[in-house]
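$ run holo --ligand "LHQ" --emit C-alpha cells
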Amino acid sequence: MGIVARTEGTDPYLSDAGMKEARAMPFETILLEVNEGAYRLTLNRPEKLNSFNEKMHDEVREVLTRIESDTAARVLLITGAGRGFCAGQDLGDRDVNAGPLDLSQGPEKNYNPLIRRLVALPIPVVCGVNGVAAGMGVNLAAACDITVATKSAKFAQAFSAIGLVPDAGGTWHLPRLLGQARALGFTLLNERLSAQQAEEFGLIWQAVDDEEFAETLDAIVNRLAQAPTFGLASAKRAIRASWASTLDEALDRERDMQKQCGLSEDYREGVNAFKEKRKPVFSGRAPQA
Ligand code: LHQ
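-- output --
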C-alpha cells in the first residue's frame, strides 16, 4: 500500500485493490485517500513545491472538518507530492507592491486554526517530509505528532530571508523541540538543516533513506491505524499539555486520564491479549459514558 495517491488508472484518487474503503475526493490542491480510518493527505501543488494558496487552505480545512466528525478516524498522514514537502505560503499570491498589506490575516484565518486543530485532533498526526520544507512548511511538520523525513529532505525557516517572523507555531515549537540556541540559529541565519541534523536536533522523529521512506511511513500509519486510539490521543494530549503545566498538574492529569483509559475496551483487550499471548484487536473507541 503506497502513500502517494496514484496518477495512473482511471481515477487518480483511488489506489490499489487493498484500499477497500478509499474514496475519490475531487480536490484541486490536495489528494486524499481514506482507508479504514487512515487518512492520507498529500499536498499537491508540486510545481510550487506544495506551497499553500487559499484553495489549499480551504481544502485542508475541509479534510480536518471531516476527520473531526469521523468517529472511525484513527490516524492522519500529511505528506507532499513531487520533490518538495511544502515551501510555506505561496509567495505569488500577494502583490507586495500594491500598498501596505495586513499579514495578520493569514495567521488569523489559516495558520493558527490549522495548527490548533492538528494538535487537538484526537488521533495521531504523522508528517512525511518527502523533500524540502520551508517557512510554515517546517512549522507544519513541527506541529505534527510524528515526523519522518527522507534523508535528502532539507529544512529552511526562510522567514528571515523575507523579513518575517516564523508563524504557524514556529516560535513556540522550535525552541521547545530544538532548544533556544538552535532555534535562533536556524531562524536568524536561515541555515538549511539536513534531515539527519533535524533528527539529531529533535525537530523530527526519524530521517530515513529515500528508498525506505514510503515503506516506513506505511508501517507507521498502518500500526497507528490499528492502535488503541483513545489511549494514544490521551497520551498526545497529556504530553502537549505538559508544556503549560507544573509537575503536580501533570501528575493529576495523568491520574484523571488513566481513569478514562482504564474504562476503555482497548485497555481490557490489551491486557487480555497479553495474557493470552495473542495480537490485540483494538477498536480505538473512547469509553462509553
Ligand atoms: C514557490 C515557493 C513559494 C511560490 C518555491 N511560493 N512559489 C507568508 C506570507 C504571508 C503571511 C504569513 O505567513 C507566511 C508564511 C510563510 O511560510 S513565509 C515563507 C514562505 N516561503 C519561503 O519564503 C520559501 C521560498 N522558497 C524557497 O526559499 C526555495 O524555493 C526552497 C528553499 C523552498 C527550495 O529551493 P529550490 O530547491 O532551489 O527550488 P526553487 O527555488 O527553484 O523552487 C522551485 C519552484 O517552486 C520555483 O518555481 P519556478 O517556476 O521558478 O520553477 C519557485 O518559484 C517555486 N516556489 N517556493 N513559497
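-- notes --
The pocket of LHQ is lined by residues 48-49, 51, 87-92, 103, 106, 132, 134-136, 156, 158-159, 162, 164, 167 (CB under 6 Å).
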